[in-house]
């Protein structure tokens, strides 16, 4: 008679493997002693788990180089650079950035495609993802393909279906992007909103590490927020949470492309900054940078424009503070430089509009100002492997 063994020890092993891989993925190389302390299990259990993860090709034990400490160097358990990798995609209006990303968030190879006609159609974007998969595989010198694909898009994403509901600047509506890419690449595909993925990266390995209540407010042409509440991403019932750019902060304000008037985006988006500075050019990165540079050099007109944006930004942050009470608010995109130039104006407005005038919220710049979306796309692609490292078999 065959007796089925109880499931419990196997479930514990899976759980511990996931814990250990998660620690190494978030922190990079750790000694066995550090892992013993972090996981709270015995040294012999750590030894068995390291063997398992090594056999799965996920980690490797190495002697760190470049240390100056005397004596016998202790081995560290590090992500295996030759282990499984994911394809991370940052889809933007003007171009697409792709990367092969290994465990630990290590970028192994990159590839950029600039759209001949902007914005791209969904089919063009999906085809470009396939082209990038081949390019980064070559660039990383790998014979294997990615174990999963993660895609960042500037739009609202239904988390269940991977369908983009609205991406205004791509001019897309109801695009089943996960399925379009899935038909072209033999790997699971996950799709996420750019602000949600930015906050994820900063939470896992950036300015918001160890902080369970954080908002990442990103300002470019559009304005959106990614939120982590109680240590978990806040996505909302349909995955549309964080569209703070379309919170109306002044009903008599300028018209917004969404059909309302006076949305936050119409006061703090890149177009608003240029308009406040009296510039009539398109809100390209270059033109926005010129105004911010001028403000930094104390040009009176540019400085007044940045301070005006800062005041409205403080009002927008106050809405977030009153709603979710974050410890930190990270300001990304052009808002990052607005913070550097005009933090006093943001603070004054924040205090004015926060309930009872009191908040300890810390305003910060991101640690990954350019790669947060790309690394966040890698995070959602790695989710399955991190949840169950045995799925690497
Ligand atoms: Zn709007």
> Per DSSP, what share of the residues sits in E-state strands of 2 or more residues?
15-25%
* Rough outline: globular
Mean pLDDT, to the nearest integer, reads 93
Helix content range: 40-55%
User: How many beta-strand segments?
Assistant: 16
Number of helices: 12
Order of the strands making up the biggest sheet = 6-5-4-7-11
Calculate the terminal CA-CA distance, rounded to whole Å: 29 Å
Query: H/E series, N to C?
Result: HEHHEEEEEHEEEEHEHEEEHHHHEHEH
The poorly predicted ranges are none
Major sheet characteristics: 5 strands, mixed
Structural class by SSE content: alpha/beta
Radius of gyration: 23 Å
Task: Describe this entry's structure for a reader.
By secondary structure, the chain is of the alpha/beta class. Helices cover 41% and strands 20% of the residues. The protein has helices spanning 8-27, 32-39, 43-55, 122-139, 177-182, 194-205, 265-268, 270-276, 285-296, 300-324, 335-353, 372-387; strands at residues 30-31, 59-62, 76-79, 85-91, 95-102, 106-114, 149-153, 156-158, 163-167, 172-175, 189-193, 214-219, 223-229, 232-233, 328-333, 362-364. A 5-stranded mixed β-sheet has the order 6-5-4-7-11, sandwiched between helices. Strands 14-13-12-15-16 form a 5-stranded mixed β-sheet, with helices on both faces. Strands 1-3-2 form a 3-stranded antiparallel β-sheet. Helix 8 runs antiparallel to helix 10 (300-324) and helix 9 packs across helix 10 (300-324). It is globular and about 75 Å long. The mean pLDDT is 93. The protein binds zinc ion.
């Amino acid at each position: 008679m065959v007796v089925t063994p109880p499931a419990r020890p196997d479930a514990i092993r899976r759980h511990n493997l996931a814990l250990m891989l998660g620690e190494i993925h978030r922190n990079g190389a750790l000694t066995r002693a550090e892992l013993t302390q972090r996981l709270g299990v015995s040294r012999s259990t750590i030894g068995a788990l390291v063997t398992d993860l090594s056999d799965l090709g996920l980690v490797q034990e190495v002697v760190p180089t470049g240390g100056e400490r005397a004596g016998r160097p202790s081995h560290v358990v590090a992500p295996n650079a030759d282990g499984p990798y994911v394809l991370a995609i940052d889809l933007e209006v003007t171009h697409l950035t792709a990367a092969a990303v290994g465990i630990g968030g290590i970028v192994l190879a990159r590839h950029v495609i600039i759209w001949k006609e902007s914005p791209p159609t969904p089919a063009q974007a999906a085809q470009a993802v396939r082209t990038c998969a081949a390019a980064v595989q070559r660039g990383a010198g790998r014979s294997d393909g990615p174990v999963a694909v993660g895609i960042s898009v500037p739009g609202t994403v239904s988390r269940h279906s991977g369908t983009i509901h609205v991406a205004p600047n791509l001019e897309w509506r109801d695009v089943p992007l996960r399925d379009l890419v899935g038909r072209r690449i033999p790997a699971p595909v996950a799709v996420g909103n750019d602000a949600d993925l930015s906050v994820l990266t900063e939470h896992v390995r950036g300015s918001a590490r160890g902080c369970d209540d954080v908002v990442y407010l990103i300002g470019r042409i559009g304005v959106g927020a990614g939120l982590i509440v109680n240590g978990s991403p806040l996505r909302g019932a349909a995955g549309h949470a964080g569209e703070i750019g379309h919170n109306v902060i002044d009903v008599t304000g300028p018209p917004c492309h969404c059909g309302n008037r006076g949305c936050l985006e119409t006061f703090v988006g890149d177009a608003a900054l240029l308009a406040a500075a009296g510039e009539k050019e398109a809100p390209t990165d270059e033109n926005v940078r010129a105004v911010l540079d001028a403000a930094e050099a104390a040009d009176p007109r540019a400085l007044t424009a940045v301070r005006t944006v800062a005041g409205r930004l403080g009002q927008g942050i106050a809405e977030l503070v009153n709603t979710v009470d974050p410890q930190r608010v990270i300001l990304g995109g052009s808002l990052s430089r607005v913070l550097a130039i005009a933090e006093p104006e943001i603070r004054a407005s924040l205090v004015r509009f926060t309930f009872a005038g009191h908040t300890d919220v810390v305003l910060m710049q991101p640690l990954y100002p350019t790669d947060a979306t790309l690394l966040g796309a890698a995070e959602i692609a790695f989710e399955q492997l991190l949840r169950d490292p045995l799925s690497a078999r």
